[in-house]
Amino acid sequence: RKEVEQDPGPFNVPEGATVAFNCTYSNSASQSFFWYRQDCRKEPKLLMSVYSSGNEDGRFTAQLNRASQYISLLIRDSKLSDSATYLCVVMREGGSQGNLIFGKGTKLSVKP
Amino acid sequence: NAGVTQTPKFRVLKTGQSMTLLCAQDMNHEYMYWYRQDPGMGLRLIHYSVGEGTTAKGEVPDGYNVSRLKKQNFLLGLESAAPSQTSVYFCASSPQVYEQYFGPGTRLTVT
User: Fold this and answer.
1) Does the pLDDT at position A2 exceed 80?
2) Which of A18, A72, A88, B20 could connect to A23 by a Cys-Cys bridge, CB 3.0–4.6 Å?
3) Residues of chain A positioned with their CB less than 8 A from the CB of B90
4) Which pairing describes strands B42-49 and A60-65: parallel, antiparallel, or unpaired?
């Protein structure tokens, strides 16, 4: 099993739709989880951290299920500007510097 | 405040040539990283540094060397470029381990 796995998509949705991405991780000892966003031909940028209690930032909700070892990102009321690739990121056990594992990303395309 | 900058933005090399990629950050971050991103592979860590004068190997270090002589700069060197090193290279810095700030990337083609 790969350390971090994501459905590559693409997810093609109309404006206003709700879309959810899942990500699974293999190391049950992983402690920290994040979602990054990467626009086409641009650098990745931190979207949000994922906490055990779940967290919400406007239209974005991130959740963690430790028992099943998966992380989710829910986007409500999709906007054209949400079109991007979403990277699931997991910190390896110990959390020492350099131990972020990036998923390959899920591509989202929001259509008018 | 420019954040993280990378030089050059694009480069074409012939097999066997050498080059250095420069990463600079003005946020006084301790940690700096070099990644490569290939289609279908995601971001992979090449080398990283936890402070001035320190470097460490990441997931795919072979064929690359790095130096961190100044806190604000992190250099990535290719001694003898190979076609397998064709990729997009991203530099990142962070004040902590997880919140990494990325540069705009360098697109390298080795023919």
Assistant:
1) no
2) A88
3) 43-44
4) unpaired
